[in-house]
Amino acid sequence: MISKKPTLKKLSPSFGSSLLVNQHIKKVDKNDAYWHFHPELELVYVNKGQGKTHIGNHLSYFNNSQLILIGSNLPHNGFTDRLTANGMETTIHFKSDFLGKDFADIPEMSSVMALFHRAKKGIRFHVETKKIIGPKIDNLTEYAGLERVLKFLEILNFLSHTDDYSLLNADGFAFEADAQDSAKIATIIKHVNTNFQSHISLDEIADKVSMTVPAFCRYFKKATGKTFTQVVNEYRVVHATKLLSEESQMSITDICFECGFNNFSHFNKTFNEITGKSASNYRKEIKLIIE
């Protein structure tokens, strides 16, 4: 399964801090790599690792370092399936106005606020930026208080001025939901995560949130910008990319049915629409990356 217990994730910085900085050097528990979203932005740096990147409607696999900025309420999975030798992952969670609303509005912060706006689509920074900024992110844990904030502002300032990046989520997929809606979305996505390998009827999922089918379809499209079928198919394709990325020699036909598709031509068409390539080409490209 690709994820468990997806939800609106509540994050709390340590007392006396406006930033939440976490760092680990061991393999990530896959139970922690669930599909979630939160109002805080997230800057994540993996210096050596392998895994899947699933941010909004963006799906890819990485076999090296990663430096990504995720915007507010943009759904994403945990990143690292496995940290390689000397691997470390550092994440920083922060609100866009972590220094106060007035400070966010000053002219000197305009480029940083523009960076936060771009982050709503997910930003992957490239090699040169990773070389410069990656170590600075790793070293943030060595500082505390105002010194940590100043070091973090230096990082944000650099990222706001570089053009060494790609946007990941060009179609947009952020949830602009209130707390009650977030709870409903969490219930829906949790059910999808648990059951995407089987058929999920609209009657079944609408009943989960005590709605009629027409009301559910309207609600879900408004909250996510997508139909329920589109989201289920994305989950199935994410799982397919995972199986295609593994060293197993599972056939593409078997992967199709393992992911919940009951028609091979429909699987091929959907996989191509979501990833921009065929399943066989995806597998070939992943093998080249790993080699």
TrEMBL record:
Keywords: DNA-binding, Transcription, Transcription regulation. InterPro entries: Homeodomain-like_sf, HTH_AraC, HTH_AraC-typ_CS, RmlC_Cupin_sf. It comes from the Bacteria. Residues 186-285 form the HTH araC/xylS-type domain. PANTHER family: ARAC-FAMILY TRANSCRIPTIONAL REGULATOR, TRANSCRIPTIONAL REGULATOR MTLR. This is AraC family transcriptional regulator. It comes from Hyunsoonleella aestuarii.
